[in-house]
Amino acid sequence: MKILFLMLTINVMMLAQNVSDFPALSESDLDSMTIVSEKVFDGNSLWGHINGGADLYLEYGFDKLLLQNVEYQGTVFRVEFYKMNDSEAAFGIFSIKRFKCVESYSLPVDVCITENQIQSAIGRFYISISNEEETEEALTKSHEIFLEILDKSKELPYLLPELFYNPRLKKYSSQIKYIKGQLGLQNGFPMWEMMFEGIEKYSAYILPISDADATLAQIHFGQKGSLELFLQNIEVTMPDQYNLGQVLKKDHFQIIVTAEEEILFCESEGDSLIISDYIKP
After folding, report:
1. Per residue in 237-275, pLDDT tens?
2. Residue 32 region, left (φ>0) first, then alpha (ψ -120 to 50), else beta?
3. Structure confidence by residue, pLDDT tens digits, 137-189
4. Which pLDDT does position 280 carry in this prediction?
5. CB under 8 Å to 120, separation ≥6 — which residues?
6. How far apart, in whole angstroms, are the C-alpha atoms of residue 244 and residue 222?
7. Where are the chain's structural domains?
8. Which residues of 24-46 are buried (b: 16+ CB within 10 A; e: fewer)?
9. How far is CA 267 from the centre of its chain?
10. Range list of β-strands (E), 85-213
């Protein structure tokens, strides 16, 4: 009995220590809030929580997950804190998870709000708050919970590459996706899979620009030779004499090599979007 009590005490202490790594909720945060259960998952146990979906988080760079089930004013909420290795990874997961969002609240961070869920990336954390009621009242409560989490967080806001702060692109910013690896591409922008065939290490910020029927991307290749393979996949030949900043064009593709193993890339119909227009101040 003493051994069992000791083991339970150690488990509680370990959970408390792990929870301290997160901007976790506590019962004193809001009136009538009860923590029904909480559990921490690492990279190995994540499979037991999201069977078949763990690989995506691991590909981006996963550290730990805190799952809290809380009851607040009669409604049960599932609150998930995915702690990623860095803010870029957290933003990446958020960017490919958000879908059909309605940003109806004024908040200092990007959010995706649907009928029964609020999602966001706060520093290294991808956060999801969901419920099964799908009512306006439950969504208002979700918003209150999210504000408590935001207030607890000490994380710095994530900054996109400078290109995407161009005033011409601002109104599309909620559509940007950060892709890291094959699973990220399959989940976030599968229509470009063939372009990356045979390429193992890459990341990309991809921004659809609906008004111009175009897509603008900043792509970084993590291995030498990957840029050449990407160009082969889209049947574009790099000229023998080439300068950084020079625009390559073929059919509906435009490419600017901006650094070693890095390009700006545009897919558009005709000249509906001129890529160089978007890298000017």
Report:
1. 887 777 787 888 888 899 998 888 899 999 987 766 777
2. left
3. 999 999 999 999 999 998 888 889 988 988 888 888 889 999 999 999 999 99
4. 60
5. 94, 107, 109, 110, 111, 112, 126, 127, 146
6. 18
7. 2-152, 162-279
8. bbeeebbeebebeebebbeeeeb
9. 22
10. 111-113, 117-122, 125-130, 177-180, 202-209
Please spell the DSSP secondary structure of 22-57, one letter per residue.
TT---TTSSTTEEEEEEEEE-TTTHHHHSTTTHHHH
The CA–CA distances, whole Å, from 76 to 102, 126, 138, 241 equal: 22, 20, 9, 63
Find, among 80, 73, 87, the residue nearest to 25 by Cα.
80
**Cα 250 to chain centroid, rounded:** 31
Specify the amino acid at residue 91: F
Report whether pLDDT(9) > 50: no
Span 82-134, pLDDT tens digits: 999 999 999 999 999 998 888 655 676 889 999 899 999 999 999 999 999 98
Alpha helices in the chain (DSSP H): 2-19, 46-49, 54-60, 87-97, 136-152, 181-188, 226-233
Residue 66 has pLDDT above 90, yes or no: yes
Q: How far apart are the first and last CA of the chain?
A: 70
3-state secondary structure of 67: strand
The pLDDT score that the predictor gives to residue 85 is 96
Task: Output the CA–CA distances (angstroms, integers) from residue 121 to 88, 109, 277, in the order listed.
Answer: 9, 8, 30
- C-alpha span between 213 and 178 (Å, rounded): 20
